[in-house]
Amino acid sequence: MKFTAFHLMSYPNLPSDFTERYRSVWVDIPRALYDPQLGHRIYNEYLDQLELADRLGFDGIGVNEHHQNAYGLMPSPNIMAAALARRTRHASLVVLGNSIALYNPPIRVAEEFAMLDVISGGRLVAGFPVGTAMDTNYCYGEIPATLREKYREAHDLIIRAWTENDIFSFNGKYNKLRYVNLWPKPLQRPHPPVWIPGGGSIETWDFCAEHDYQYSFLSFFGYVAAKKVADGYWETMARKGKPLNPYSMAFAQGVVVAPTDQEAERDFAPHADYFYNRCLHIHPNFADAPGYRTLNSIRAALQSGLPVKLKQHYSWKDLVDDGIIIAGSPRTVRERLREAMKSLNCGHLITGIHMGSMPPELVRQNAELFAREVMPYLRDMWSEWEDKWSPHPLPESERAEPAPVDFRRPGLEHNRIISATPWRPAK
Amino acid sequence: MKFTWFHLMPYRFLPDDFKDKYRSVWVDIPRHLYDPRLGHQLYNEYLDQLEFADRMGFDGLGVNEHHQNAYGLMPSPNIMAAALARRTRRANLVVLGNSIALYHPPIRVAEEFAMLDVLSGGRLVAGFPVGTSMDTNFCYGEVPATLREKYHEAHDLIVKAWTEERVFAFNGKFTKLRYVNLWPKPLQRPHPPIWIPGGGSLETWDFCADHGYQYSFLSYFGYKAGKKVADGYWGVMAKKNKPLNPYSLGFAQVVAVAETDQQAERDYSPHMDYFYNRCLHVYDGFADAPGYRTLTTIKAGFLGQVGARAALRREGLKWKDFLDGGYVIAGSPRTVRDRLRDALTSLNCGHLMVLIQLGSMPPELVRKSTELFAREVMPFLRDLWNEWEDKWSPHPLTENERAIPASLDDSSTETNGRYNSALAGENRPAK
Amino acid sequence: MRAQHQIGGGRWQVELELCGSGDPLLYLHGAGGLLGVDPFLAELSKDFKVIAPHLPGYGESTGGELVEDVVDACLFYHQLLDDLGIASTNVIGHSMGGMLAAELAALDVHRVKKLVLVSPAGFWLEQHPIPDPFAMDLPELAAHLFHDPKSPLAQMFTTIPSDPQQLADMYVERTKRLTQASRFLWPIPDRGLKKRAWRIAAPTLLVWGESDRLIPPVYAGEFASRIRNCRSVTIKHAGHMVMYEQPEEFVRIVRDFLKG
């Protein structure tokens, strides 16, 4: 079993009357609510937290791409992965991912991921989501009717740019490039593992199965509700005669750990409330765009009677009872998580160590308890399967060691001493 | 006087017969020449150098964007600036810059620069180059005829995205967006200082003068050849009644410092040769696509940076010629001080971008040159232009307002250190 | 009368309303498509041979994926007219259809005899941005489309069927239509008509509902200033769906213009 500590980098300071006053946390949320000075503090706090996760022994640290919103403040997750690359040593950099249809031409993704793979010594996981309707259609103005076709073309171009040995020309419908010739190329051969984050589109299952990509189901509604999607995925895999290797699926599950179940509720309930009720306050008409989902996916959703609308409000009890989050003492969490991963047949757990408005000390406690008291007890799961979807970094001995940096110990700054003797022109 | 330690991040390991065997270092350079394992060492070595420059007191750390080449290995300089943000404390992150016409839609630049500005506590300089013809027309397939129009539209959108307080719609010719609403927005208000790197296009001078942007002249011909361009720029500024503030001009100069002039030649000469003859070995057909430079600039007789004519001019140059021609300022600290003072005075330049790592130069030489420059040259030039106000450097948060990244030293954290999975294995629950 | 036609050697199967006789009159619907109850067409068919095709991707018309931009759409209409043996025709276009009608008239000045643009899309004024119809739910949309959102017509428009199968069908059809419309209107309904409008030679009538809250009447001025032979009429007590809201007056004005 593998564990990725994931961060959405939510804005923690939305006002308490946010949902009454504003229609959406995404797309048209007022800019005035963002305080860049607080933004500076939280970016650094959040990166500290991911770096801690590396030291605590998580297998991966995860970031992702969203635009114009307070739910997740990373228009470019690559920037964050870059900031982490030389301040972490072990964990994979799980970028989940770049909405590749939003990079025109998409060789930019091939280039940036190659840079990250090379800097980090081959620790990159390359995620290719389509991106939400909010991000792609509303924020980035992509025409819904052509988004998925563009996505496919971008995917084909990126993979070719990574794998072809010679320069080539690409005459796509959306991209025309006479000289494609990636410098640098990625360190992992033939390319970094590709994970496809999805929200339940059925076409994505076929796509993953056909390309042997890992399918990352990113849901905020927990393992109970996710069962249907996981079953759909595994059915597709079975139909195509693919092995039902648990590592070919990742699942995002909210998990919070405290010394006791009572403390979990006391400590985390307000932050879960903040996340589920403010960070997910998305204007329903931004959540979908005509053509964003395929007609097949819409028909499937209508038939299976999935709730089209989210609940108006989520209480702690709703969240825990429905498995939307798994919370409690290490013992409680271990047991439920084992049950969850088993029921989904999932080998890669993606779990947010931070949720909504959690302060750093609580994040630290959560991450430490998870790493010490939960993770080791689940490690044995799926040990009979081979994980083909984790990166293959250089061995430690071949990896560059960044020169030490210690901000608390001024040592090498010579300029101040020297500036004390100002230059005087010769007489 | 301000100093930015600028890195191109070249590939150091091109073969000796590179120039004879291959037609170009850019666009169609064979992919097999790039070894990602060496690439890994190089990126980390180069980032170490930039971090060292921060500790040595340089005002800025410079990175820039180039594609499909061995001259400069940063398709995204933002990745490098991000890697530096939390491993440096003082120096500005001078991203020189993003070729904004290559980002569709260009709000991506507004977003990434905003992220970097917020992350670094307001240390960002935002550079907006058009980009070379190799990068824009050949690697990224931009139609030369519309490149500059696209560039201007991208600029307008980015600046509006940074400064407009409300959601707005943008109906451009190349970019159409209904909801532009930047989250996060940059820390510096109204936005990070904008520097416009140019290679000598006349239109760029007007553009800088009209917007109050700093003009960064990036040339590898050195300060003597740069004089003509600088004079052209100051002429435009004078004509438009703008103050001739030296800080409104940045200039890139190759500099190499050693114990003595002779030692400098011994140390650095082979690496200059590598730079000028391998890194700048650009096929003439890629140097200047028809329509890339405007007719005005071509008529004014300014020479392109690369291509056959530029190469011809450098053909057969030896160490002494590089020094005499001003391509390179090299020697003992005293020599470098004097020549740099001359150069900066003659150009009226307040922002020097020092190119210290060049071509195949190995880390120990880079360290020596950097350290000597910081100790023995920089302090002696600091007084230049004291009478002028530098309006083009970032305005970061004060030190005590800035977040200090947590220590990575396990022993200093309250955790018991990294939980390694071997140990975890022993800790499996009883069956 | 509803008809199905093979167009362009089988590239498209087109569903169209075909009624009346006389001078041909091509009607290009808006983003919502034909509603199924379009009385003004029946009324116009008393004087004209009305041809109202569903744009590929709408209703039963197939081949939406072949109509990806303005040029594709114009070529489709040319092919339709060719296959129906119509050399030149009057054209009415509403909203998105108005934009396409104007493009058709600009690309081939000989094909269009007279042109009626009803609340057409196609331009964008910084000072008067057109609201985003794609991000509206039905009541919100009705408030932008109708002079009186409480009118029975508007109510009919916003009614959601209670039968789950009907609801699903409606939802899928609506998605299909708006997906196709997004090719012309997303994210901003400007596909460069301003570069080509000067070519329009057909006498042109602009019709606007006075309380159009989707494409405000100020846009009439923009069209009038760019089309040579153009006049403009505003109809009271009507919004963006003017031909549904005030059918008699609409038909009278259009008939007079086309006959005059």
3D structure, described in words:
The complex is a heterotrimer of chains A (427), B (431) and C (260). Chain A has 427 residues and is an alpha/beta fold. Chain A has a domain of 292 residues: Alpha-Beta Barrel (TIM Barrel). Chain A contains 15 helices and 12 strands. Chain A has an 8-stranded parallel β-barrel, surrounded by 5 helices. Chain A has a two-stranded antiparallel ribbon with strand order 5-6. A two-stranded parallel sheet of chain A has the order 10-11. In chain A, a hairpin with a 4-residue loop joins strand 5 and strand 6. Chain A is globular, with a radius of gyration of 22 Å. Chain B has 2 domains: 395 residues, Alpha-Beta Barrel (TIM Barrel); 34 residues. Chain B is built from 16 helices and 11 strands. In chain B, the strands form 2 sheets. Chain B has an 8-stranded parallel beta barrel with strand order 1-2-3-4-7-8-9-11, surrounded by 8 helices. In chain B, helix 7 packs across helix 8. The longest helix of chain B is centred in the N-terminal third of the chain and has 20 residues. The radius of gyration of chain B is 22 Å and the shape is globular. The N and C termini of chain B lie far apart (70 Å). With 260 residues, chain C is of the alpha/beta class. Helices cover 38% and strands 20% of the residues of chain C. Chain C is built from 10 helices and 8 strands. In chain C, helix 8 links the parallel strand 7 and strand 8. The longest helix of chain C is centred in the last third of the chain and has 22 residues. The two termini of chain C are 27 Å apart. The relative contact order of chain C is 0.15. Chains in contact: A-B, A-C, B-C. At the B-C interface, strand 6 of B face loops of C.
Topology:
The complex is a heterotrimer of chains A (427), B (431) and C (260).
Chain A: E1 2-6, H1 18-21, H2 36-56, E2 60-63, H3 77-85, E3 92-95, H4 107-119, E4 124-127, H5 133-139, H6 144-163, E5 168-171, E6 176-180, E7 194-198, H7 202-211, E8 214-217, H8 222-239, E9 249-252, E10 254-257, H9 261-279, H10 284-287, H11 295-304, H12 316-321, E11 325-328, H13 330-344, E12 348-352, H14 360-378, H15 415-419
Parallel strand pairs in A: 1-2, 1-12, 2-3, 3-4, 4-7, 7-8, 8-9, 9-12, 10-11
Antiparallel strand pairs in A: 5-6
Helix pairs in contact in A: 2-14, 3-4, 4-6, 7-8, 8-13, 13-14
Chain B: E1 2-6, H1 18-21, H2 36-55, E2 60-63, H3 77-85, E3 92-95, H4 107-119, E4 124-127, H5 133-139, H6 144-163, E5 168-171, E6 176-180, E7 194-198, H7 202-211, E8 214-217, H8 222-239, E9 249-257, H9 261-279, H10 284-287, H11 295-299, H12 308-314, H13 319-324, E10 328-331, H14 333-347, E11 351-355, H15 363-381, H16 421-426
Parallel strand pairs in B: 1-2, 1-11, 2-3, 3-4, 4-7, 7-8, 8-9, 9-10, 9-11
Antiparallel strand pairs in B: 5-6
Chain C: E1 2-7, E2 12-19, E3 23-28, H1 39-44, E4 48-53, H2 70-84, E5 89-94, H3 96-107, E6 112-118, H4 138-145, H5 152-158, H6 164-185, H7 193-196, E7 204-209, H8 218-226, E8 230-235, H9 242-245, H10 247-259
Parallel strand pairs in C: 3-4, 3-5, 5-6, 6-7, 7-8
Antiparallel strand pairs in C: 1-2, 2-4
Helix pairs in contact in C: 2-3, 4-5
